[in-house]
């Protein structure tokens, strides 16, 4: 089914509802809440501060979170009673199910305001989103705007400002029991994939790190997504160490992380997933920003060390979801547009050295003892 067919389920219904916008008022009672988006794993996990805040403020409300179908099973483990609903933009059946799931008293739009149309089509009576850089048709259904912070802040904390109140302390997610043979303890998960090749660390460095960890008495294990097995093959072609790349669901990966001594990875979704189970984590930052995408205030007590983020001239972009943030220093280019990409690597990731990782790992162990 085409995206056009799916959109036919949204816009006719939403346009009729838009005519009533001048008469809408904030709800006095909130029984049902929709969080409408189509974010990748890491950004979806960064909605956790918002979920926690909503649950504290609306303890009896039904909170429905749209997410990619692959995320549904792990979100059923959430401690906030949030209901995950699968969303496939090109599936008319998926779109129809969401549109017919309403009405909702309140809808929150993290990220791209285009999903305010989806919320309106689902019968949302009051829609809250961050103020856009340009007031165009994407934001027409929005009833209330919240400003992005002027000062440096983690994106998860910023999204939580879509609702009022103080940030509560995070709750640990209950990881499922192993339903696969676990590695020998103590083990360290090396997640080598990333959604953007600009974030890849070199294969030689990964293997040298695994060898060093083994010499320290730890069992290194490789991790990656289903389409990232080739990355592990390039790092460890003789399978010196066990690989879980492409073998685990997200809930199984959460179980693996919960039992790990530590996780070492690039700035990617798995780094955020580990926060749910307090896994000691070292995150390698090249093009990304450790303030915007790090633990922030909500996860400030988690054992996390950010590595890298060395000065480089081409990390010169300041936008996030189309909004200009003067304090933000990042690069969102892919490998084709990266200004310093050579031999499969960006210069900002090449600047991260093995000795830097080794030193940070020792500090991380001291932090959790």
From TrEMBL:
Keyword terms, alphabetized: Glycosyltransferase, Transferase
Keyword Glycosyltransferase (UniProt): yes
Any matching Pfam family: Glyco_transf_9
MF annotations from Gene Ontology: ADP-heptose-lipopolysaccharide heptosyltransferase activity
Organism placement in taxonomy: Bacteria, Pseudomonadati, Pseudomonadota, Gammaproteobacteria, Enterobacterales
Any one of the GO CC terms: cytosol
Biological processes annotated in GO: lipopolysaccharide core region biosynthetic process
Protein name (database record): Glycosyltransferase family 9 protein
